[in-house]
Predict the structure.
Amino acid sequence: MSAQSWEWNFGDNSPSVTTTTGTVSHTYPLVGDYRVRLIKYDPASCNVYDTAYLPIRIRADEANVGFTATRIIPPCTSLQYRFDNNSTPPAGKPFTNQSFVWDFGDNTPTVTADAATQFHQYAAEGVYNVTLTLVDTNYCNAPEKVTQQLRVAANVVARFETPADGCVPYTAVFNNTSSGGVTFEWDFGDGSPIATDVYPEHTYTAPGTYPVKLRAYDPNTCNLVDSTTFNITVHAIPVAGFDYAPLKPQENTPTTFTNTSTGASIYWWTFGDGDTSTLANPVHQYNKTGTYDVCLVAENDFLCADTICQTVDAIVIPLFDVPSAFSPNGDGQNDVFMVRGFGISKFNLKVFNRWGQLMFETNNPKVGWDGRFKGQIQPMDAYAFTVVLEFSDGQKGSRTGSVTLLR
């Protein structure tokens, strides 16, 4: 719990220590029993002070814990191991038959024992984490665990997993899935020194295709050694770039972006006003006068990416206009009844037939009426409309009238 300060007395005649945090460390130079006192001070609490005590016993009877594992051969196909407990007790405190617990990592029952040698037969090949635990509290370091990984196999088979592609600089992570294997040698294919880690990592600093070779050695198997090779391709980073026009902003004129990136096939534009695009060469109309940070992320097919940003100025004069007619005949010209405007932030357009039935409505100034109602083409006629909008500078506008649908 929180407090303003804590006063520690470690019970060994050393000076008391006052801290403003609840954690402290202290070294005891001598073996012995000590009573630690902690006084908590919190003027915001009802009792202001509170005291707690904790007994600590400092001992010098640490046992050294360790073991070795040896395959029992012949035959070389045997999956039986001998486990030698190499632990040593302090003088005058020998181990008992309850001092250790063995876990052979294969879900078989654990074994409680003294320092005697253990034998264990594995039922199947695999990777097993063998743990020897000192559980005897007669030693100050109990419980202490020592774990070794065993790769149990009749024949050593070199295998590993890693992605086949990366972006320079690329740090490859290798998952060693070999069957068996006591020692390993990795040749990363780029002239770097041989590595002997079980699960290495390696950084490639130049683009290229590199043959990675793993050599696995196991003196306890029938074939002793095996190797495998896998190619990693490291790809260059694209170079992002773009130009835009006009360089000097013109009123109500969209900005045309020309992509000059190299080595890329995927593009992601952010125009600084919340809009985005995945086109290679987009055209963007800003809705408000201002300076915008435009960024382009250029990627290749392997997701290697580069980013470039530039500032773009825009001048927008709020205005709108409504056409008097449109011809939805599919010729690509004037096929949609759409309000044209600049700087529009809020928008509503409704279209009615001569009987007052609502034919179309939208709140998006980029969406217009295609002359259909419930999927059906409407006849040539004059249709009433209402437009209500608000500009980005806060001004409001509206218009009512009619638009003629022509065929």
Remarks:
- The chain has a mean pLDDT of 94.
